[in-house]
């Protein structure tokens, strides 16, 4: 008797749409934390998010079919937070805290849907943007990126037969497992999944998260993906992102206000969150100027997430700064999250071991590392540096300087103005792979 | 750990074409027997086969996408007999006989491919025809019908979700199994699968054949489907079809030749085949006239396959005819194959038990009975009466009268001429369901 399940097979081969994003919880946790603050304090601010492909050699509009892209984006717009999801958001402890989300916020969230998008093609790239109230557009970032990245993988795999696919995933699994074995050898390491936006696919991210859970056990501290956290009883992790200082800076009406913008973010944040959620993201307009001008109370925060400086050099500067302010780095936390590979994690871990608490937010190289896995050579499965950044706030241009000039975004004239105000100290150009 | 096989899933959802016919052996065995004779004796005869949908209420051109139909037909044209298939055709015993196919014929068959087709739409129906040398066009009949029937099922199931499909097939399986239980209760019955052309799908036919094998054991004598016979070590069954007398009649140059055409078929056939392959198909131009004018040697043949008269009435007439010719029907074989349902099989079996050897070639109601199986009411899964008949031979119109006027095919004026020559005795109009 042949073992074909005819019903299942017929179903598999008559699919109309294979949705990439199937839940509004399939996003990064920090988006929800930020959203509560935006909803509470800045409900009238408009913000535009725009897709930026920094890997210009990859012509996304040639690789991905526009019709499929629209279908996926349209499908994401049909999503609502489900009852189960709302109950979980309200009832689960996050960072050891009950009811981190206010009932009024959750009541509003229940009616949330993603707003409309604008999509066109230009020079082989997609111009995709989301305009409207910040408290709506902000939630597009992660699903938009996940959709484009997965559509790209799908397109790349369309030519593969069943065995090529079997081999592809077998190799990727073997590769991933070898990484967990290396990481397991680092006592006391703490690693979490930050790979939602750049993942190869949802199912592959899920596999990686589950593999990490089994492979490194206690060293795996959780995932930024809220849906995966809920489904796998993992900690949902993440704090805040560049969009906060970027919008605040864009809204500043004077040079003084602009220079204060990064600290105003922290003050606002503190009204909502405490403890381990008090993590400073210092590099929006350069870490050096941030530390130089920071008020003393910033040193009371739990930790920093250096996100664009070289990790050891950048981390050491933060340690010095803490020491100058009379703080013992051993009580402090550094969260590394910029383009981590196993090698970087190992080096950084060895360097800082015993000096500071550390945590690694592992992204693209966790959930989208298929290099050398395809049976036939292809670049189409290599991850690209795709971001979705806030580009305007209330009609004014938004800018990010970063510690790495290659990661700067925004209008060039505005970048120059910001550089004059914040300075260029310690900015180091590094190749942005992902 | 989630149990999704990612590679398999990606493969399932990126299919380009799900070919319905994947082997030239996925056809009825009698087509190959006839083909050898056509190739050997009538290689210069041209014959056109045309699709005829007798269920005119079903608008095939509305239900089936033309692009998909062309893709499937084009795919069938890429097929060749594979090495394994050629070896099996040459090495297997058919009807107890070694090397039923001549080496020269097999050598020619190795290069065989299906010829081109003509396809257009008219009044909601497809006009599909195959013109050219008979020894090529003849092999289109079965794959063309199987393709159209399965495309129709696929279209009908497109709207079904995974559970609706699961229920559909579960019910169809339960229904099918109940039939095997009824048939098992008839001692000594002999049943074979004749359902290739009208099947719901290839996989479903395979399931039915395997279910019959397990369900009725020795009573299941084999299948007309050569591929399923090869793959399941079953007997490949079938002898000859109406196209032989129809072409011979069309080529007749006089009334005398026309009246002799049905017997000339048998003479030619006997040059190639013997024993249990000597089965007369008597109804092409009416069984009554066939028996009335038949030479004595026809009574020496192993049996008859009455294919359009009511089975008991029609069978009794053949028994009488044998007795008149001094033959004992108990030594003879009747093969019933016209629109059989379990009820007809039971009645016919009970009526003829002990009087004559019997065999049932079970077609449409074996491999395409989904009535009442769909969770939502639909007619789109009901089998229809679709045939692919020879309509011209060397440019002359071909005609079939049949014992059932509803099954007559061909130009109306020609039908009237044939009726004048062969007579109308015993023709009984019956509803043609399938």
TrEMBL record, chains A, B:
EC number(s) in its UniProt entry? 6.3.4.21
**Pathway membership of this protein?**
Cofactor biosynthesis; NAD(+) biosynthesis; nicotinate D-ribonucleotide from nicotinate: step 1/1
List residues of the Nicotinate/nicotinamide phosphoribosyltransferase domain.
Answer: 190-420
- What are this entry's molecular-function GO terms? glycosyltransferase activity; nicotinate phosphoribosyltransferase activity
Q: Does the keyword Cytoplasm apply?
A: no
GO annotation, cellular component aspect: cytosol
- Residues annotated as domain Nicotinate phosphoribosyltransferase N-terminal: 25-149
- Post-translational modifications: Transiently phosphorylated on a His residue during the reaction cycle. Phosphorylation strongly increases the affinity for substrates and increases the rate of nicotinate D-ribonucleotide production. Dephosphorylation regenerates the low-affinity form of the enzyme, leading to product release.
Keywords, sorted A to Z = Glycosyltransferase, Ligase, Phosphoprotein, Pyridine nucleotide biosynthesis, Transferase
Short name of one Pfam family: NAPRTase_N
User: Secretion signal: which residues?
Assistant: none
What's a BP term from Gene Ontology annotated to this protein?
NAD+ biosynthetic process via the salvage pathway
**What InterPro entries has UniProt attached to this entry?**
N/Namide_PRibTrfase (IPR041525), NAPRTase_N (IPR040727), Nic_PRibTrfase (IPR006406), Nic_PRibTrfase-Fam (IPR007229), Nicotinate_pribotase-like_C (IPR036068)
Residues with Phosphohistidine modification: 242
Q: Does the keyword S-adenosyl-L-methionine apply?
A: no
* Domain of life per record: Bacteria
| Reactions mediated catalytically | 5-phospho-alpha-D-ribose 1-diphosphate + nicotinate + ATP + H2O = nicotinate beta-D-ribonucleotide + ADP + phosphate + diphosphate
Q: Which family does it belong to?
A: Belongs to the NAPRTase family.
Q: Its biological function?
A: Catalyzes the synthesis of beta-nicotinate D-ribonucleotide from nicotinate and 5-phospho-D-ribose 1-phosphate at the expense of ATP.
The protein here is known as Nicotinate phosphoribosyltransferase
- Gene behind the chain: pncB
